[in-house]
Design goal:
alpha/beta, Gyrase A, domain 2, four-stranded antiparallel beta sheet, binds arginine
Amino acid sequence: MNLISKTEQILKEVLQKNNFEEDNIVLSVSSKPELGQFQYNGAMALAKKVGTNPRAVAEQIVSSLNEYDIFENINIAGPGFINISYTKEFLKEYLTEISKDMSENVKKYPSKKVFFDYGGANVAKDLHVGHLRTANIGEALKRLTKLVGNEVMSDVHLGDIGRQSGMVIYQLREEHPDWVFFDENYKGEYPSEIPITNDDLGRIYPLASSKAKEDDSIMEEVRRITAELDRGYEPYVKLWELIRKISIANIKLTYEALNAEFDLWEGETDSYPYIEETLEILKKAGCLVESEGALVCDVKEDTDKAEIPPLVVIKTDGTTLYATRELATILSRAKRFYPDEIIYIVDNRQGMYFEQVFRTSYKSNLVRDDLKFKFVGVGTMNGTDGKPFKTRAGGVMKLNTLLSEIKEETSKYVKDNEAMSAAEQKDVSDKVAVAALKYADLLPNVEKDYIFDLAKFCSLEGKTGPYILYSAVRMKSLLAKSGITNYEMHDIYSQTEKDIITKVLEMPIRIDKAYRNKTLSDITEYIYELDSLFNKFYAENRILTEQDEEKKQTWLFITNLVYKVNKLILDVLAIDIPERM
Ligand code: ARG
């Protein structure tokens, strides 16, 4: 068990022994490190409950705590803040244990099955920066959820049908009217390939989209094609399947570059087999009413502060839409995987839509009441003008373009490194680029918009991915150069060392906070704080040339410990550490 939980457990026993009732026991980092490593601030509230003096309560707690030999120098500050430190002997034992398996230093929860829906790229459209954050945040939240003891599953939930399908098919028909897909009388097999690349799609969709915007009759035609595809008109279904394949192959590459790993590569169309049953369930529960020719589900509740409009489930022309496929996807997931919770990591602006979807699901008994839904709305990456980040020419910034720009910037860190082959230089600068992007993306709270700043994100100083990687690589190389593998902790020689140890012990508190708040900023901030302390320690000592063998071993032990924390946290953030930099 991690030390924070263990200490909270001891506090619980102590409170029980002294006849205090308290279920919520929270240990925090001491605000006055000179008085202790951690603090318990519950004495004031306990005293208020029973109507006594807080200091007296604190004294009672302290005298019981003193019976445990893992603590030293327990003291009371102010009205009743209890400061707690651990003995060196105990720390030595505990730190040795966690340095073998750092996940021991994490607060664990009883396992639940949590299903993650993130990424959400749209087929036949280029991935834009909006798809970056949901991928980065989703991947990290999934890994974090697993780390604290849950079973996790993920699906990219591709937007693989909709208006864009109609657009692309329309434009292909304009350019290739001779294709058999457009011959109504064609009876043969449909081809299994088309001479179209992903780059072509990057041209075709925007072209069709602007044409349709300018000309109502084209838009009408696009709608008609989309509806026919939804109804299953075979030539279009076959053609769209080929387009889907071309586009998904490319989407996979982009997500791979970001270390986003999905168990399922399903899309909205994979829900088609569940649509009929979904509609049956909704109808049976009396949740579908007609409204201006469409079928909608009324979801408002008396306690709503703002008006929540009904969810449109079937369009006036009888076809399905995003929400229909959403509901059918929920049914499919519930039936196939029995999740305890489904978490959606999607753009902030879809918050109301998901509220409608969740309400519809419960109201119609599409899912059990104990299946939990959670919407994690993410903010956007903006340009300095406060609007979604664009290219220099003012167009939509494609994710791949952004990645190449950052790689260009980070290549400067390895360009003149003669010790590296060209291949290694590329590998390292790619890793640093992904770290720069991810760290910057995960640093602000998830719901906040933030401003893209290439130079700042790629800097080797401050709260940046390159700074963290540089520190981790420094630790790694220090350990390798030392030639020693069995370091031991003998003593604590300086305040900086003590601060580092306290910071390592703090890890479960920060991880727990991030997990409960569903945001990564606590972790990104934490690793920066830890690495800054490490770099201070590194500047203060000549580790490799130290003559005192015990000191040297202790310092390497600390280096290894901090490296292990870095590795664990960077794994959660899905950031790779290069061999050298
Ligand atoms: N494809 C959607 C978009 O680009 C995101 C999908 C999010 N997930 C979901 N289950 N609706 O906006």
